[in-house]
């Protein structure tokens, strides 16, 4: 069997939504792609990616557990190839009033969005360090959110996990700059995926996908920023980008009130 010569990328939560579109963008740039997901549909997603003329490696595991994260990493490492791009994308939300939401749901979200991101980043960063600069690009995309720039009432712990991811990405970016490893944060605005339905937010303004950003465009912006070496990019239309500009001059209570209006259950 001949050794693959294409660069290799991984995308967590690559079976649907923004993650799948990130994988498509990378495939269209000539990368083989390893994708993870929780359900069996990760295999169908891999088949679709093969339609873009690359190899795809699906891995089914629960990103909320240490073993699930580690098993995806092991599957990627077992390919025995340099890793050129890692998209740490998987993330879930928990909507609702903090008084009412279930603690186990919130702890699971923190496990996926925070602990799982740090866990996989540790494996990726060390592997990229060890493989050195001579075996192609070394780039890491951390998927955060516009929610990182505002308090998020009615999904209060979610916004905090996304602020964690943004801060973490900017921090390791600075550490890895001299190594030549690029780290970029993608901050999508509200995007058309299954995310808000899965977060139990169907009874809020976010329950309607029709007004949200297009996930293909959000992913395209993220991958472009990653390859341009930008520190972060807001994913979405002009109104979404303006929202983040506005957040810089608003007080935390002002932002909280505005955000709370949109996320409050009807
Ligand atoms: N959509 C938005 O409005 C929005 C806005 C800002 C930021 N983001 C961020 O963008 C990222 C992607 O969100 P999305 O909108 O694409 O969400 P999504 O449509 O709900 O997709 C979630 C993906 O993650 C996988 N996944 C979920 N739970 C998992 C688990 N426990 N173990 C392994 N895989 C799991 C799913 O796999 P299965 O297919 O197997 O279920 C799927 O591939 C998240 O980090 C989110 O915080 C989203």
From TrEMBL:
InterPro entries, per database record: NAD(P)-bd_dom_sf, Sc_DH/Rdtase_CS, SDR_fam
Keyword Transit peptide in record: no
Gene3D superfamilies the UniProt entry points to: NAD(P)-binding Rossmann-like Domain (3.40.50.720)
Gene Ontology MF term list: oxidoreductase activity
Region of interest (Disordered), ranges: 242-266
Similarity comment: Belongs to the short-chain dehydrogenases/reductases (SDR) family.
Protein name as it appears in the record: Short-subunit dehydrogenase
Organism expressing this protein natively: Actinomycetospora corticicola
